[in-house]
Design goal:
256 residues, alpha+beta
Length: 256
């Protein structure tokens, strides 16, 4: 099928929203950043609600709500909503979509006839009913790291209707937006890791401990399980092993 391109005005709106979100990377309040994400996508897609879920690094079997922006109120998820990532009949579509890792766009009829629909009442929506759904899993090299969930498409400020659903253009906008959010998450992860490294470095007892801290930080950021740091020793004109997390015959202080 032939699909309409994304309107120029929407692309400009998307770029403006992306810039504002990426400028918030250095904030300490991550929830405030996620609130900007939810509000921006809700406006871009003219939806009643947008929610941002992330997968905790220490509990990868769940989605945890970080922020939600609706016509009713702003929610920064103080109640800690957790959804299992699974594909079970009646177990909920949000966890199923994260499990499959595929962008999903559903009308009211498609949603209500889906075997995995949990049949819960969405209190955050004005009609207490989901009439259209668009979910975009956030997929990185580590798998699903989060999900953007948008509900109830509106037109020209009108209330959501079963006759109005998210379009292919909406889906393309959401995919582009998700790519920006993945960049945001990686940037936040890097900034947070460097903050922790600087705090730990202030307490390091000696240079050897400093090198170990730097190597461990790098391994976490790269999702690696082994690595080394070799440092140039100018007087001896050689590379000296200063830190290692690899099965090798060399010891710290030996030359490579």
């Amino acid at each position: 099928p032939v699909h309409q391109p994304i309107p120029h005005a929407k692309l400009l709106e998307l770029l403006d929203a992306s810039d504002k979100i990426l400028q918030s990377v250095l904030r300490h309040d991550r929830r405030a950043t996620y609130g900007i994400v939810a509000r921006s996508l809700q406006g871009l897609l003219e939806a009643e609600s947008c929610a941002v879920f992330l997968v905790p690094a220490d509990d990868p079997g769940f989605l945890v709500l970080q922020a939600q922006w609706t016509d009713l109120k702003e929610s920064r998820s103080d109640e800690k909503i957790r959804l299992p990532i699974r594909s079970v009949e009646g177990g909920g579509l949000t966890g199923h979509i994260a499990f499959n890792g595929e962008v999903t766009r559903l009308s009211k009829n498609e949603l209500h006839s889906h075997p995995l629909w949990a049949r819960t009442t969405p209190r955050h929506l004005q009609p207490s009913e989901c009439r259209s759904l668009l979910c975009v899993p956030l997929m990185s090299r580590r798998g699903c790291v989060g999900l953007l969930k948008v509900e109830n498409k509106r037109l020209a400020g009108a209330e959501a209707s079963s006759d109005v659903g998210f379009t292919h253009v909406d889906e393309q906008i959401a995919k582009l937006f998700a790519a920006k959010i993945l960049l945001l998450l990686e940037s936040c992860r890097t900034v947070d890791a460097l903050r922790e490294l600087l705090q730990a470095a202030e307490k390091a007892r000696d240079l050897d401990e400093m090198f170990d801290l730097i190597l461990d930080c790098g391994l976490r950021l790269l999702d690696a399980d082994r690595g080394d740091i070799a440092w140039w020793d100018e007087p001896k004109r050689g590379l000296m092993l200063r830190s290692t997390r690899s099965p090798c015959n060399l010891q710290k202080g030996e030359f490579v």
